[in-house]
Amino acid sequence: VQLQASGGGLVQAGGSVRLSCAASGRTFSIVRMGWFHQAPGKERELVAVINRGGSTYYEDRVKDRFTISRDNRKNTVYLQMNSLKPEDTAVYYCAADPSLGIRRIDYDYWGQGTVVTVSS
Predict the structure, then answer these.
(1) Could you please report the per-residue DSSP string of 10-74?
(2) Quick check: 8 and 21 in contact, CB under 8 A?
(3) pLDDT of 14-51, one tens digit each?
């Protein structure tokens, strides 16, 4: 499975960005897809997850601002990020895995990362 993330950029605080992650290869094996972020000097953290059936999980900090969605026909997962804050500045990675466990943070497949910078 290969993952290609896109959609990052520079945005002002309070603005919105939508990230996309297109999967190719053995996509039929994917059960859950997630987004992680890694802020400068910090560890990579789980932001949101969606499984094949549409169930979702969000980190508390983004729960009311971000929405994860998935188009199974296009093998693409999206992360709509609203009301962005400077602390959302990070490299965002998409990931995919064939196993269950929506809160698990171990993923077999990773995209290359896309940078989101939120200016104050």
Answers:
(1) EEETT--EEEEEEEESSGGG--EEEEEEE-TTS--EEEEEEETT--EEE-GGGTTTEEEEEETTT
(2) no
(3) 999 999 999 999 988 899 999 999 999 999 999 999 99
